[in-house]
Structures are given as structure tokens and as C-alpha cells.
Amino acid sequence: MEDTKRLLPALLTGLFSFPYRFPPPLNKLPTFAFGSSMDARQEYKDVVRDLIQRRRADVAAGMGASNSGGILDSFFELQKQYQMDAEEGSFSFDDDFIIDNVITILFAGKDTTSVTLTRMLQLLGTAEDGKEIMDQLIDELSKAATVDDGEREDGTAAGLPGAGLFTSFPLLNAVVLEANRLHPSVGAVFRTTRKDISYNGYLIPEGETISWNLNQGSLAETLYPEPRKFCPFRFLHGGEKKDTDSAASPGAGARSTGQPIPPMWGFGKHMCPGRELAKLEMVLFMKTFLPKFDFEVVEGQSFSGSLPANGPKDKLRVILKAKAPAAVA
Ligand code: HEM
């Protein structure tokens, strides 16, 4: 954990830097941090390699079932299957491949979810109707089951979220979408063209890297009237707040009919594979936090974003107050 706290931020700064290894002290400047980011990555690889070795030793010593569901065990299982099925000359599912994937997951899954939650609290805490929306959220979250605790046909463990967790939480889903529309925690997605593409009079040649800028697309006035306004109801009832909105039936019957759902999870086969985990984390946090605490966003702070995940530059400062016990269900 300590290593992750120290190395992950250093690694992330390299994402938005000039890809050249500048000598010290220039490599300490964020724009030139590519070299120190690569060093952090190398050190982090060794940390994960050590974890892999320790986990293998534990499993071999009979400590911990090999099918415990932990991420390393899942990779070991996939590695075994892959090695059995692998054809001559195919890519090697070796430990370096596992390490790269573990680092990708840690890096893709940490700030994205926490920044989304932070932005949700910021927006709920500052919107005129924020308190009303929070009360509706509490009601919605208290009524629907968070986890699938029934028997599974395929025999996998109950208690894990079913796919599409948010279908039970339409208002929470709308708040998450709206927070990400206003402050996307992933600002762009990238693709490489597989053939020449003609777009809007421009030729984009095969093999070019293109990016979809989620920051800009989500603020287009033609798509979202009053684009800077926090209004989760855009994604309920065809975009309007109805007098009948209540926790019992927020947005019943319809998602947005007019305002497109922002592609916060990306597209196609690279669509975020961690999205159900992120949704579960957000449901659990909101379900635990909202009924127990009132909070006030401290006035006068800046909400402008910072790299890499667009969280408030100076964090979010709030004054927390525990709700009176009678108010806590
Ligand atoms: C609110 C939280 C999150 C948001 C908004 C988010 C968003 C995204 C987006 C937009 C992409 C790019 C998709 C594309 O290229 O089409 C992505 C990719 C990815 N995400 Fe997430 N993500 C979140 C949480 C997580 C979590 C919790 C994990 C894992 C624990 C995760 C793992 C990944 C990985 C591994 C990729 C790369 C997929 C690939 O390139 O094939 N994400 N995410």
C-alpha cells in the first residue's frame, strides 16, 4: 500500500509529459516527468513481481485456496489455461504480462472512481436542489438491494454485483453520468484507424491515432441545454425534472429521450472493464455516507481540475456533521 501511494502518482505524471528522458533536475518538472515516471514504473513492476512470488509461495504452501477470487489468483488461472491452449509462436502470457495488467488496473481504477465520487459530492453540495436530490438518493439506495444475494445458475458466489447494477438505481446512475459529463475523470479515449476514414471533409489516414475528447463533447450546448448546469434529470424522463419525481419512481419509464448519455465508460471492446466494480464502489459509498452525514462544501474554494483524473486541484473541502441518530435508518 505504501509503495502504491508513493509510486502510482509518480507513474501517472508521465502520462501527460513530453516522452523524453530529461536529466535531473528538469525531470522533476511535471511536463518533463517522463523519465521519473518510467523509473517509478520499473520500481512498481518489482513490487508487483514480489507480490506474485509471495502469493505463489503461499498457494504452494496450501495457505489460501488458489480459487480465492483475488486478482493474482485469477491471473494465475488464466495463465495456466492460456499455456495449455497456446499455439506455437503465440504471445507469451508470462509474469511480465500479469504485472503490466495489474499496474494498468491499479492505475485505471483508483483515481477514476474516487474523482467521480468527489465531483458528485461537490455538485450535490453546491446545487440549489442538491439537498432534495440527496434525500431522493437516500430513499432509492435504501429500497433496492445492492448485491445479488440469490442463487446463481452458474454456481458463482452470491453477494457480488450482478451486471447492470445501476438499473436498480436510476437516480444514482443519472447523478454519476451528470458528474462525469461536467467533470470527466477520463478526458479522452484513443483509437488507431484501421483504414482511411473520411470525416467532415478531412481524410484520416490508416494507422493514425485519434482521440475523442470527452471533456468538450459533453459540454456541447447543441446536445445539452444549459451545459454547465448540474441537472441529473437530463437523463431521466426525457430530460426534465418532473413534480412527480420521487425516490420511489425517479425517471420511471424512460431514460433521456433527448440528451445523449455521455460515453463515460468508453466504447466497444475497449469499454471500461472495471465499470461494474466502479458502480458497486459508488453505490456502497453513497449508501453508507449519505444517510449518516450532512456535509457543507466550504465556500470560496476552487473546483478547477487537475491531471490526471480531473479531480479538484486543491481537493474538496467539506464540513462533515454526523446526522442525529434518529435520522439514521
Ligand atoms: C468511475 C470510474 C471509472 C471510469 C469513469 C472509467 C472510464 C474508463 C474509460 C473512458 C476507459 C476507456 C475506454 C475506451 O477506450 O473505450 C476505461 C478503460 C479502462 N478502465 Fe476504467 N473507468 C473507471 C473505473 C475503472 C476501474 C474501477 C477499473 C479496474 C479496477 C478500470 C479499469 C480499466 C481498464 C483496465 C481500462 C482499459 C481497457 C482497454 O483498453 O481495453 N476502470 N475506463
Characteristics:
8 helices, Cyt_P450_sf, two-stranded antiparallel ribbon, heme binding, 8 strands, 329 residues, iron, binds protoporphyrin IX containing FE, mainly alpha, oxidoreductase activity, acting on paired donors, with incorporation or reduction of molecular oxygen
What's the helix count?
Answer: 8
Fraction of helical residues: 40-55%
Tell me how many strands there are: 8
CATH class category: Mainly Alpha
Distance between the termini: 34 Å
> How would you classify the helix and strand content by structural class?
mainly alpha
Q: What is the CATH third-level topology name?
A: Cytochrome p450
CATH H-level homologous superfamily name = Cytochrome P450
Order of helices and strands: HHHHHHEEEEHHEEEE
Radius of gyration, Cα only, in angstroms? Answer: 23 Å
Instruction: Give the strand content.
Output: 5-15%
Largest sheet: 2 strands, antiparallel
**Second rung of CATH, namely the architecture:** Orthogonal Bundle
